[in-house]
Every structure is written in structure tokens, then in C-alpha cells.
Specification:
Blueprint (H helix, E strand, L loop, with lengths): L8 H10 L1 E5 L13 H4 L4 H5 L12 H11 L3 E7 L16 H4 L6 H12 L2 E6 L28 H18 L6 E4 L7 H14 L4 E2 L13 E2 L15 E5 L17 H13 L2 E7 L9 H17 L18 E6 L2 E7 L6 E6 L5 E6 L2 E5 L2 E6 L4 E8 L8 E8 L9 E2 L4 E5 L4 E5 L2 E10 L3 E12 L4 H4 L4 E5 L2 E5 L5 E3 L9 E13 L3 E9 L9 H6 L2 E10 L3
This protein binds alpha-D-glucopyranose (GLC).
The site of alpha-D-glucopyranose (GLC) has 8 residues, from loops.
GO cellular component, one term: lysosome
Pfam families: Alpha_L_fucos
EC number: 3.2.1.51
């Protein structure tokens, strides 16, 4: 993967090094226990919602415990909701009495307590702030999610909200809580480009080193880093900036009493590793309850992740993404200085040899990260004139570490990788993020050049992510054409396989594989693979547009069949 061009390298460094942070969705809505959108979902009148403040008393809140838990999990920063869409400030705001200090019996400022604790424990503190949606304020305007049960849209004067609440509160957050790592804005639909720019300027004028995420605006190119869609793990080749995936542990952000649909620790680690291998950060969410406690199951998961990070953190923090422009079936790759880390997921572990094609660099040694005494024997074969570079590792019978085992390849020279799409153990996954997109009549075509090292029959699958509730037949009304070399087929993609435990696809999307046919490759060599379809599009720029797609094209996968 190419080196990222980052203008302000020094101020974003801490962020790209951190790789793993804690998201905290905590607000007045915790008192209802149905997530942070409950006011909107149930159209709760402002006056009624305000009554929640009378009894809101989260006196079990303990900043020291929260920060210690984040540390224990191996997280390097905390992003907490200072004000969410319900408009309730979880800090002492002079701009509006609708805040936790002035309007609840609790009367304490949790952000102040967190700021002090973070400073003590060396944790970066960051704030989430809902700058556009605010269902409490009579003058906030968003392009879709407004409070229309208390207020009339046509009577709204946006700048009353913007100038008298948003700007003063952002100023309070950046002047009263010490240095803030980043401000995480959200749902900016409808905000003008000028107001978006002004918001960025305001932040930078108060704290020049404070980062701003891309959701500050729905206009393209905003932000020091890109916030992906909720729970969205991008494909390889999609990134143009440092980026982060915000992710839920279960299916909710704000405390949701009935939600025990937790991801397994194993799957969270695989997702984190996948994200790191593409050069991104994982911002993993917890939703504390109305007493101020992080749900027990969340605490348990975070501790288990921490156990894995204690042994394997070196392969995550401060690393760069994989130099290979595709995902591996067995896991993922990260790089730091003279080390390449192979993350082999235990689920995919098979004893015997693991072969990696296109690895040109001579190795000094290979060993297990969680037990450096345990060396791994290897063989390297470089056939320059055929363009063939192979590394073969002899894996122990059992995976040496819990959940996911990391092998360190210590390099004897500078890292060199064949950047081509090469089949790896008979499989190659071609992400749309790396495709050359060409406009052709009504249909676009995506093209990749693929190096096939072994002749034989290959099955070709289309990988898509489908949003829950979307009708497949509506989305794929026309056939698509697929061509490899000179052979081509016309196919109607079906929902052939539904992948339950996808590494990168998650609620509200499902990973679907469609069988596009079998192709015979008669001799090893370089082939062009082209897919023509009305679904093929240029790479989208803004995260929210991308997130809304009913079906996302992810990759085309070639799988060698047993001969
Ligand atoms: C969404 C939701 C919000 C949540 C956020 C987290 O945009 O509106 O409730 O805070 O995503 O990424």
C-alpha cells in the first residue's frame, strides 16, 4: 500500500501510531436504555425529555475506572460524547443550562474528571460533538433528522443555533479541559461549505494541534482524518488519508438495555488486525448506563482484547499497513521498521507450510511474537527472470497464541514486495478500491492485472455487501460481463453464499458471494480481469454517501479448484 501523504505529519502522528481507541456514547438517553436515537425514534417532546434530568444521577461514574479500563484494553485515546443529537451537554456549559452540572442532581462535570484522569494516566482525551443535529434546540437544521414534533422547520433560524450554542460550546470544550486530541463531529448533512470551514478554523484557532474528523462536513476533502461509515471496514486501496472505523461492541452506541448481541473477542481482534493492515484505526465503543457504569460484558471483552494486546501489541501500534494490495485468506500483514508481522488467525491455522508469493526481501529470522524463543524455519526462492519470489514458512502444529498468532519476519534488507496482484495459495481477492475504472457506454468496467502462478481451473466470485432489508433482485436487474484474458461470460449475480462471520462486513450489512463462473487458465502469466456492470462506479469521496449504498461492490475473488 502506498505511503500516505499527510500534510501536517507531526500533529497527526499520535493518531496513526495509536491504532486503537475507546469511543464512549454516554448521555441522558442512558436513562431510557434504548440507544441514543430514542428521542427521535419515539418523538419524545422536549419538555418530557427534559424531565429525565430531574432524576439523572450517575453517581457510580468513576473516571479512574474508565481510563484504567481503556488502558487495560490497550487503547491509546478516548473519544467521549460531549453532546449528542439530543442536545444534552455532558459538561458544564455556560452557553446552555441543559447540561449535566446545572440541571441534574448529579451536579458533577464528568468531562473535567476524565480530563484530570487522562492527564494522570497519559491517555489522549477527545470529544464527540453533534454540531448539526440537535433535537432539543429550536433552531438546529439538518437535512433529514429534525425535531418536527416540537418545532416548525420554516420557523427555524439556523444561525441562532450555530452562533449562540454550537460555537460557544465548542469553544468551552477546547478551552476548559486542557489539550484535546481531536474533535469528532458527526452527521453534517445540510451544513454549508462555508460553515464547515469556519468550524475547522475555530477548532484550529483554539488548539492548532487538535485534529478534526471528516464528518465535520459532508463536502469532500474535509478533516485531518477520515471517519469511515459506522461499522464500516474499507477495502484495501480505498484510503487517501489517515482513517478510522467507529465500531460497536454489540449493535448499539448508546446504552441499550436489551442488546446482548456482542461480537466475539476473536472477531473483534480479527477486525482490528484487518483495519491495522490497511493503515487504519479502530475506535471501539462502549455505552455506559444511567448509573455511570460500563456494562459488564463490555468490560469483559475489553479485558480479553487487552490480554491479546499485551502479547501482540507491537504488531499493531505504530505500524504501517500491508505492502500487499490485497487481503489474505489466513489473516493480515502489518509492518514496522525492519519487521513484517503476519497475523494468522487461529481459525485459519493449518500446520505445515505457509507459502507467500511476491516476497522479495531476504530474511534474517522468523519467530513467534508472543514467544520470541520459538523460531520458525523458512525457505526463500527467488527466480528473477520468471518474476517469481517465494517465501515458505514451516508452521508449528498448534497455533502458538490465543485467538490470533503473530509471526515476525525480521528483514535482512529493505522491504521489497512484488506490487502485482498475485495469487496466494490459489486465491486472489481483487478489491474495487484498486481497480482501474473505465467508462463504457451505459456500464462502467473495473479492471485488474492479475499474476497467476499456477495453471488450472479458477472459480470466480463477486463479493458484495448488502444492507439489511434491501431486495437483491431490484439491485441486480441486469447481467454483468466478466472477462479473464480472452474468455468472457455474461452472468446474473445471485445471492449464492451468505457469509455469517465476515471479517470486514458487519451490521447493518451482510457479505454476499455470487458465483460468476469457472475460468480455465492454461498457462501461468499476467491476465487482465474485467468486470462490466452498471453497479461499477468511481470511488466515492465522502463517507456518508458511501455508507448509504444499498449494495456495495467490494471485490472479485479467484479461487483455484482442486485439480
Ligand atoms: C451515527 C449516529 C450516531 C452515532 C455515530 C457513531 O452517525 O447518528 O448516533 O453516534 O454514528 O459513529
Amino acid at each position: 500500500m502506498k505511503e500516505l501523504m499527510v500534510e501536517n505529519r507531526s500533529s497527526v502522528d499520535w493518531f496513526t501510531d495509536a491504532r486503537f481507541g475507546m469511543f464512549i456514547h454516554w448521555g441522558l438517553y442512558a436513562a431510557i436504555g434504548k440507544g441514543e436515537w430514542v428521542m427521535y425514534g419515539q418523538k419524545i417532546p422536549v419538555k418530557e425529555y427534559e424531565q429525565l434530568t430531574e432524576t439523572f444521577n450517575p453517581n457510580l461514574f468513576n473516571a479512574k475506572e474508565w481510563v484504567s479500563l481503556a488502558k487495560r484494553a490497550g487503547m491509546k485515546y478516548i473519544v467521549i460524547t460531549a453532546k449528542h443529537h439530543d442536545g444534552f451537554a455532558m459538561f458544564h456549559s455556560k452557553a446552555d443550562k441543559f447540561n449535566i452540572v446545572d440541571s441534574t442532581p448529579f451536579g458533577r462535570d464528568p468531562l473535567k474528571e476524565l480530563a484530570e484522569e487522562c492527564a494522570l494516566q497519559g491517555m489522549k482525551l477527545c470529544f464527540y460533538y453533534s454540531h448539526v443535529i440537535d433535537w432539543h434546540h429550536p433552531h438546529s437544521i439538518h437535512d433529514s433528522a429534525n425535531n418536527t414534533w416540537d418545532y416548525h422547520l420554516e420557523e427555524k433560524a439556523f444561525y441562532h443555533y450555530w452562533n449562540r450554542l454550537v460555537k460557544p460550546q465548542v469553544t468551552e470544550l477546547l478551552t476548559q479541559y486542557g489539550p484535546i486530541g481531536l474533535i469528532w463531529f458527526d452527521t453534517s448533512g445540510g451544513l454549508s461549505k462555508k460553515d464547515s470551514e469556519e468550524m475547522v478554523q475555530l477548532v484550529k484557532s483554539l488548539q492548532p494541534d487538535c485534529l478534526v474528523n471528516s464528518r465535520v462536513s459532508h463536502w469532500p476533502d474535509f478533516g485531518d482524518f477520515q471517519s469511515k461509515g459506522d461499522n464500516e471496514i474499507p477495502m484495501s486501496g480505498e484510503d487517501t488519508k489517515p482513517w478510522e472505523t467507529p465500531m460497536t461492541l454489540n449493535k448499539s452506541w448508546g446504552y441499550s438495555a436489551g442488546d446482548d448481541h456482542y461480537k466475539s473477542t476473536d472477531s473483534i481482534i480479527r477486525k482490528m488486525v484487518n483495519i491495522a493492515s490497511k493503515g487504519g484505526n479502530l475506535l471501539l465503543n462502549v455505552g455506559p448506563d444511567e448509573r455511570g457504569e460500563i456494562p459488564e460484558l463490555s468490560v469483559e471483552k475489553l479485558k480479553e482484547i487487552g490480554d491479546w494486546m499485551d502479547k501482540n501489541g507491537e504488531s499493531i501500534y505504530g505500524t504501517k499497513g500491508s505492502p500487499f494490495p490485497y487481503e489474505f485468506d489466513w489473516g493480515a500483514v502489518t509492518v514496522k521498521e525492519n519487521k513484517v508481522f503476519l497475523h494468522i488467525h487461529n481459525q485459519k491455522w493449518s500446520s505445515g507450510s505457509l507459502r507467500i508469493n511476491g516476497f522479495k526481501t531476504r530474511l534474517h529470522q522468523a519467530y513467534i511474537l508472543s514467544n520470541p524463543q520459538q523460531k520458525i524455519s523458512f525457505m526463500q526462492e527467488n527466480r528473477e527472470n520468471e518474476g517469481l519470489y517465494r517465501l515458505q514458512l514451516e508452521l508449528p502444529e498448534e497455533p502458538p497464541c490465543q485467538l490470533s498468532s503473530v509471526i515476525v519476519l525480521e528483514l535482512a534488507e529493505e522491504l521489497k514486495i512484488d506490487p502485482a496482484f498475485i495469487e496466494q495459495s490459489g486465491v486472489i481477492k481483487l478489491d474495487f478500491g484498486h481497480a482501474k475504472i473505465e467508462r463504457e457506454q451505459q456500464q462502467n468496467a473495473a479492471e485488474w492485472q492479475v499474476k497467476i502462478a499456477e495453471k488450472g481451473k479458477y472459480e470466480v466470485h463477486l463479493i458484495t455487501y448488502k444492507r439489511t432489508g434491501v431486495d437483491w433482485k431490484n439491485e441486480f436487474a441486469d447481467s454483468m460481463k466478466i472477462a479473464i484474458g480472452n474468455e468472457s461470460k455474461s452472468v446474473m449475480p445471485n445471492e449464492d453464499d451468505i457469509i455469517e462471520d465476515s471479517e470486514t462486513c458487519q451490521h447493518p450489512y451482510t457479505e454476499i458471494h455470487s458465483h460468476l463462473g469457472i475460468f480455465e487458465i492454461e498457462r501461468p502469466g499476467l491476465y487482465s480481469l474485467r468486470l462490466h456492470s452498471s453497479k461499477v462506479r468511481e470511488k466515492p469521496k465522502g463517507p456518508e454517501i458511501w455508507q448509504a449504498a444499498a449494495v456495495k461492490l467490494r471485490a472479485v475473488k479467484m479461487i483455484k479448484m482442486e485439480s
